[in-house]
Amino acid sequence: MEELRWGILSTANIAQEQVIPAIQRSKNGVVSAIASSSGRAGEVAEKFNIPTVYESYEDLLDDPNIDVVYIPLPNHLHQEWVIKAAKKGKHILCEKPVAINVEQAEEMVRVCREQNVTFMEAFMYQFHEQHNRVKEIIASGEIGEVKLLKGSFSFYLEGRDSNIRMDPKMGGGSLYDVGCYPLHVIRHILDSEPVTLFAAGEIDPQYGIDISAFGHMKMENGVNATFDCSFDMTNRSDYQVIGTKGVITVPRAYRPDVFEGGEGLIIVEANGQSREEFISTDQYVKQVEHIVESILAKQDPSYPGEKTILNMKVIDACYESMKTGRIVNL
């Protein structure tokens, strides 16, 4: 099987802990180079046996032996480096959220289209098979007609004084960092877009970012959806689908990789009975292999740029509603 050669832009923790190892576990990718502006590229290259080290992102993008780049830079830098990578002919996997507003996302997708490069936002969770199983259960009618979907993602953020998640100039805030997941899962599981949205936030008085956010959406298909996210609550990473006959709960929705073998869990309560289904998937490897397969087949990934724009539109609407205190029509 043909392998594509990856370049990594930055030594970010997510790259070291998840994506570089996933590329190395994949059947169709190899990590060929890494670049860092911090001077740590050599250290990380030695750790992961990466053959080529660059001290600037530009030098990596100029390497003709790199086919695809992974960009885990801070949110406010995504637009700049996605566009630069595209103009160098590199295919791109970019961490979420890809931008800090929909205008940036639209420009990034447009440039990638113009340069004929594949671009995908790294919502890795969607490649876990538990979500396809949830859709199957819904389609079977076991929980009846879906009336409500509730999504949550939170954790208690330590060391706030030195964390970029607290910096508004770098795209900080709970909605960008973790809230984007429940917003995405609502749209993904329901296969529907919101028509109205209301959101409220708790703004940190020192840093000026949303430390927590809460909201409601009415979807095109008539289903109601609620979401919440926070840097100020205990660990939660779940969603619930509530129907007229039962409930589906997915308690390991976004990070099942922290469980042995990437084991996801689905709890179905219907007809007075409850059961558990365990499904294992290496979601980071699936994500890597999917974008490489899409590049080799010269076709859009299952999560193309146009869907990224839609999710960014919803995030923008949340911030508009939080600022104005009003319902936003999408």
From TrEMBL:
InterPro entries: Gfo/Idh/MocA-like_OxRdtase_N, Gfo/Idh/MocA_domain, GFO_IDH_MocA-like_dom, NAD(P)-bd_dom_sf. Residues 5-122 form the Gfo/Idh/MocA-like oxidoreductase N-terminal domain. Keywords: Oxidoreductase. One of its GO terms (molecular function) is nucleotide binding. Residues 132-248 form the GFO/IDH/MocA-like oxidoreductase domain. Belongs to the Gfo/Idh/MocA family. This is Gfo/Idh/MocA family oxidoreductase. It comes from Halalkalibacter suaedae. The lineage of its organism: Bacteria, Bacillati, Bacillota, Bacilli, Bacillales.
